[in-house]
Design a protein that fits this description.
Layout lengths: L3 E8 L9 H9 E10 L11 H20 L5 E4 L24 H11 L38 H6 L4 H12 L5 H4 L12 H6 L4 H11 L3 H26 L21 H9 L5 H13 L15 H6 L14 H5 L2 H13 L5 H4 L3 H4 L3
Helix pairs in contact: 3-9, 8-9
């Protein structure tokens, strides 16, 4: 006989059945398991969930609900007061002085050494017990996540939210990861993983990605590609760890010396950037594509606004995976790196025609 009669499994940023420790623990210790999702948009303030993220959430929840139904269970959905899955919990990766890292490279060296200690991802259950009838909820449609005006055609054509879509995309990416080190810097080539929104909503976990890529790593080129990609997963990890240890970095620089940075303010230039009308072909192509498919936002800051808040909030509605730490990390750690990267980008892609650059730009800005 199991220890508990009924267990609630609270799905948050882990909208999947594969490698879901909470679900597997509940199945092992309770006679009945009730999958629960609580929609609490007020807890996202002041960075409210944007329209594209709401679209993705709707379809991820629908995919999860259908998968649960196939296994004999159901998803209980509620609205009311209630974070992102990581490889390692914040506070477990510290430097020699037992303090949080403030620089990525030493942080990544420590994480990279610890990767072999990660648990092997566990398979999804083949069957689930029925949810008690008395436990009721609302329909996913009642959350009103989908847009009232049908602007989401580009999203639907480009993405497949949910666990099945994530696993399929991971399988496809493992076949082309050898070209990732150079391909990720080419906005005219679809050579990024396209896993960022799946990671954001927990359609797939970072541990699953690490395991799949390390298992596929055969040959020098493949190994280089895997190492390069996992480093980008490390940047995502680092951003979350920074936000945990230094929560002020949502609106202030990590290095206090940059708080007095002089920023150029121009509403006209900001508007031109938002509309893809700066006159810089690569930037404009990317912004137009961003509006079309609602991809992930730029991950580097410029000298246009102190906290990048104007830009970040302008696109909060068009990001499908707005991980708070990632688009702002260059400002949080200082502005020089961002400006240097922008100069390199201009030089590297100066010769790419806008028609080619506009094809898959947002995916090149994703991991």
């Amino acid at each position: 006989m199991k220890a508990h009669q009924t267990a609630l499994v609270w799905f948050r940023r882990d909208l999947r059945l594969t490698d879901n420790p909470a679900l597997l623990h509940a199945l092992a210790n309770a006679e009945r398991v009730a999958p629960l999702f609580v929609f609490a948009p007020d807890e996202e303030q002041p960075w409210a969930t944007g329209a594209a993220s709401r679209w993705w959430l709707h379809h991820s929840l629908a995919a999860l609900a259908e998968r649960l139904r196939q296994l004999g269970s159901r998803l209980v959905v509620q609205r009311g007061p209630s974070q992102a899955a990581l490889l390692f919990e914040p506070g477990t990766i510290l430097n020699g002085q037992k303090l949080p890292y403030r620089v990525f490279t030493p942080f990544w060296r420590t994480v990279e050494k610890a990767l072999p200690s990660l648990a092997v991802p566990r398979k999804a259950p083949r069957k689930l017990p029925a949810v008690p009838r008395k436990l009721t909820g609302i329909e996913i449609a009642d959350l009103q996540l989908l847009p009232t005006i049908a602007w989401d055609q580009g999203l639907a054509e480009t993405w497949t939210p949910g666990e099945a879509g994530a696993l399929k995309q991971l399988e496809q990416f493992t076949k082309q990861v050898a070209s990732y080190p150079s391909g990720r810097d080419r906005p005219d080539r679809p050579q990024t993983s396209r896993l960022s929104p799946h990671l954001h909503f927990g359609d797939i976990g970072p541990g699953q990605i690490v395991a799949a890529l390390r298992h596929s790593s055969a040959g020098a080129a493949q190994s280089r590609g895997v190492d390069s990609y996992l480093r980008q997963v490390g940047w995502r990890e680092f951003a979350h760890h920074l936000l945990f240890h230094f929560p002020q970095t949502t609106d202030a620089p990590l290095d206090a010396r940059f708080a007095k940075q002089k920023w150029r303010r121009s509403r006209a230039d900001l508007r031109a950037w938002q509309r893809g009308a700066t006159g810089i072909p690569l930037v404009d192509a990317g912004m137009r594509e961003l509006w079309r498919v609602a991809g992930e936002a730029l991950r580097s800051s410029t000298q246009l606004h102190p906290t990048v808040a104007a830009g970040a909030r302008a696109f909060a509605g068009s990001m499908d995976s707005p991980t708070l730490g990632c688009p702002r990390r260059s400002f949080a750690t200082g502005g020089r790196r961002a400006r240097r990267d922008l100069s390199k980008t201009r030089a590297r892609f100066a010769g790419i025609p806008p028609s080619r650059a506009s094809g898959l730009f947002p995916t090149a800005l994703m991991i």
